[in-house]
Amino acid sequence: MDPKLIGIAAALGSAASWALGSILFKRLGERLSSPAMTLAKQIISVVFLAAALALVGFQPLATDDLVLLVVSGLLGIALGDTFFFAALQDLGPVALIVLLTLGQVLTVVLAVVYLGESPAPWAWMGIGLVICGVGTVLLGKVGGEQGVTGRRGMLFGLLSVVCMSVSMIIAKEGLDSVSALQATFLRMAAGAVGMFLFGLASGRLRDWLLPFRDLRLGAGFLAAVMLVTFGGFWLSLVAIKYVDVSVANTLGSIEPVFVLPFAVVFLKEKATWSTVLGTLTTVAGVVLLVRYGGV
Q1: Cα(first)–Cα(last) distance of the chain, in Å?
Q2: Is the dihedral of CA 125, 126, 131, 135 positive or negative?
């Protein structure tokens, strides 16, 4: 199979996984703090990823790549996830996607500046259509979300966007000598260690983990973590391993196209004409990227 097609499929799968994960974590966040969800998610992810790696085997990797992946994990997972969950509690899943869409633009700019990527003209047009389509999908939704203009939620959302975007650029550099699965494990492990040490230092570790005594809550959280670990994080690294970061993240930006149908099913929201128009625009952008963008 063409490696570029693998990258494209992985980016789309990652977007769908994060969309559903956002809905699930929004509900779980009503009973859990953002640091608690970040730490627990990382611990569970590390266990499952280690089990998967035990089957396929670990690869030796260069020290420079290890350092890059560790830094990427601390920044994008320990910090980025914590800010994401905090923003999710204030803004809700649909409103938060507005800020995450800005992250797609930031990642493209960073990829061009620091990685020297140069998307073809058709790819730039596709990127523009995807971003415009995503914005159009959300126009009718933002006004109805409570807390969208809340300063705390906006601040946490912007911090999450910056952390995640920069961490993806760093991770791209660290993928030279390691598989996407092992890179995901290393990033998760770094994030878990960072959050664990922070919890110990702040004396809040016990309070974070106490709610998980509820087995039903724990089971629901486990299912959500598996979804975003293998569907979200791992597929996102598979994507940037086989295609440019700018293309992978633009394809990943169609997350709102997935999150809105999930919102209709789980949150009983209604679709609008702006949703339909934005979805069609987004699909057109994806077609340009895949067919003419040189991806």
Answers
A1: 14
A2: positive
- What does the pLDDT average to over 127-155? 67
Give residues with Cβ within 8 angstroms of 134, minimum separation 6. Answer: 97, 101, 104, 253, 254, 255, 256, 257, 278, 282
Burial category of 76 from C-beta neighbours within 10 Å (exposed 0-12, middle 13-18, buried 19 and up): buried
Nearest to 255 by CA among 122, 138, 158, 112: 138
137: closest CA among 289, 281, 284? Answer: 281
Q: What is the pLDDT of residues 264-283, one digit of tens each?
A: 787 676 767 777 787 778 77
CA angle 39, 167, 282 (to 5 degrees): 105
**Residue among 187, 188, 185, 149 at smallest CA distance from 170:** 187
- For position 71, what pLDDT does the model report? 94
Report the distance separating Cα 42 and Cα 48, nearest Å: 10
The position carrying tokens 């394809």 is 251
Do residues 244 and 111 lie in contact, with contact meaning Cβ atoms separated by under 8 Å?
A: yes
Task: Please report, for residues 13, 21, 232, 277, the alpha-carbon distance to residue 16 in angstroms, rounded to integers and kept in the order given.
Answer: 5, 9, 8, 19
